[in-house]
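Give me the fold.
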Amino acid sequence: MLTRSEFFADMAGAMAGIVFVGCGLMDAAEAQPQSGNAAPRRQVVLGGRRVKTVDVHAHCAVPEAMALMGRNVAPQALLMVQEPVHERVRQMDAQGIDVEALSINPYWYGAERDLASQIIKIQNEKLAEVCAVQPERFVAFATVALQYPNLAAQQLEEGVKKLGLRGASIGGIVNGEELSDPKFYPFWAKAEELGALIFLHPQGIPDLEKRLQGNGLLTNVIGNPLETTIALSHLIFEGALDRFPGLKLCAAHGGGYLPSYSARSDHGCLTFPDRCSKTPLKKRPTEYLRQLYFDSLVFTPEALRHLVAECGASQIMMGTDYPYPWTSTAVEHILETPSLSDTERAAILGDTACTLLGIVQA
């Protein structure tokens, strides 16, 4: 067992090539974490049982890989938050987060094959290095070059089997092609075969940027959840979830707008059956919500109650969107939603994520 000083020394070395990075929400200076004295590690107990809490939605980046695409790695230009790792661990301790699942938002879908392969190799190896230093606090999703689906399948398998990564993070669309397109079947088949969790994070909708300009950061606030809604709807209606029923897919931001108005999907097929006959589904569109997973980043107790009602507590996992401060109270959000039982709270806080990500709970 490493001493505290030895742990932070090793982590500092491993983290040298990693920065925590968000979704382009605000200036880096605004998002800088506040340093302070180390808080005692908060432990979450429900019904007398210690619950291992897992944050499935936490961003980072590897500047060395980004530089290969000519991306400016200056922190302010990239809206990055680079911090001593001990500061991040202190924040996890204070917030009651035991394990963080790191992911990198895809920026490489336009890269040619050799360059994309190089980027993915650097990123996945760095992610694995960080997690290996302290596996009790960090796991990670592999990155994949999804514009080359067969290559992405190989990268996923290597990431899981060789590097110990726990799945893959992907965007909601790839160069204008929906994730339901049959060209992506090799990747979905490999993910299903491996039982690997795929974390879907939207990148916004460029086609709508003109309408989403102006006050309110609409490209993010509206654009991101809308992209997720579109991606999931295509996966349902084009039959991809029927073809890969064992696929483990988690959508960020509570699945966008889909769970909030999913019954319209059912009634659309009842009202206009001819528009749903091209790819007959094996069940009602709303039923697919119970084979998908979602993070808990929906902000209010009523929103979380509704998400549970539509999808089931077993399908929801805690997410913070760290490092950007959408929330620092993800644990409280779950604990203080009055409609939930302790069993449901434990599932959302970490039990489900531990199962899907292979995290030992003891």
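The chain is about 40% helix and 10% strand.
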